[in-house]
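Appendix B, example 12.
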Amino acid sequence: MQGFRAGSGTDIPSLMAGAFAASLPTIILFVFLQRYFIEGMKLSTAGE
């Protein structure tokens, strides 16, 4: 079974491109909302 799977291989570049495309929306949201994210972290630590 393992030899059969090794023959077909895995398309690593396509896999990496898909992973990058899937994470891109999260990265973009963080860049635009970073100000609020940091402000929330400051407020949570200031309350203690």
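The helical segments are 2-8, 12-46. The mean pLDDT is 82.
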